[in-house]
Each structure stands twice: as structure tokens, then as C-alpha cells.
Amino acid sequence: MLTIGDSFDGARGHLGLILPRAAVGASMLVHGTGKLRGEGPAKTGEMFEQLGLKPGKPWAVATGLAEVFAGAGALLGFLTRPAALAVLVTQAVAIAKVHAKNGFDITKGGYEFNLALMAIAAGLLIAGPGHASTHALLDRAVNGRGARRLWRTARPSPAQRLFQLIG
User: Fold this and answer.
1) Do the Cβ atoms of 83 and 129 come closer than 8 Å?
2) Is the CB of residue 66 less than 8 Å from the CB of residue 44?
3) Contacts for 44-50 with beta carbons within 8 Å, 24 or more apart?
């Protein structure tokens, strides 16, 4: 929810976070669910083994879970910063192990798309989820409005500080 102190530009900035959250969220959900469904764990595990990531199948499942978490977190705007970290880690490994040798161009198997996902994730890591998010909805529900919110903002508990940090 926008407050009195928010400008039109600030509101646009918060609403503007929805699109990058949706883009990285949908991409990571598709990547992750593909690794977890049907033959995904076995096939991805075999590929991981060939890349030197052993044992392959457990790493494939862990990567799939991290990507699904990252996708859901980004889409919902909840635990956005940990989700962004998961994107950064999984895509850095993908670049290092698969795409770097192919150069930048995605049409040649390069790291162009991975780098774009990482840039979006870095932006979400810095900015957080914005006002149009599950995180903001929960924050408003817990902290309330008016004087109660002012008091909790002025004297946040350790739990509130952690909640704000993880975004």
C-alpha cells in the first residue's frame, strides 16, 4: 500500500518490480519443474555427472528445488531476496559449467540469457519485492496502520528487522 509520502515516481517504481519478478519467476519455475518431474532428475543428474557435479541426481534435485523456490518467491514477492540469491547461484554455476565456453550469444549456447536472469535477480536483491507483493501484504497485516505502524516502525523488534531484511 502506498503511503502519503510516496510520490508518483515511487509508486511507479514499486509497480515496476512486478514485471521483473514475473519474468525471472516464470523462467525459474519452468527450469526447476523440468528438473523435478518425470525423467527430469535422472536426465539432469546424468548431465550434471558429465559436468563433474557428483553425485548428479541429488544435485539435480537440489537445483530443481532451488529454482522452483526462486520462481515461486519471485512471483509471489515473498522471500524475494533469498529467491534472488538462489537465481544468482544457480545461474552462476550454469554459466561456469555449461555456457561460458560458448561465449555470450544465446543462439550459440552462450550465457546471454543466464546473465539477464542474474541482472534481474541482482536488482530484486537490492530493491526487494516492492509494495505490490505478498511480503508487503503480510507486513501491513502484522504492523497495522496509523499510530501502531508508526510505533512499530520507530521501534522494530528483531523479528520485524529480519522480516524486512529477507523481503
Assistant:
1) no
2) no
3) none
- Predicted TM-score (pTM) of the model is 0.85
First to last CA, the chain: 15
**CA 127, 85, 34: angle at the middle one, nearest 5?**
120
Is residue 36 one of the residues assigned to a domain? yes
The cell for 32 is 526447476
Q: Is 41 within the bounds of a domain? A: yes
Total structural domains in the chain? 1
Read off the pLDDT of residues 77-104 as tens digits, 9 standing for 90 and up: 999 999 999 999 999 999 999 999 999 9
139 domain-assigned? no
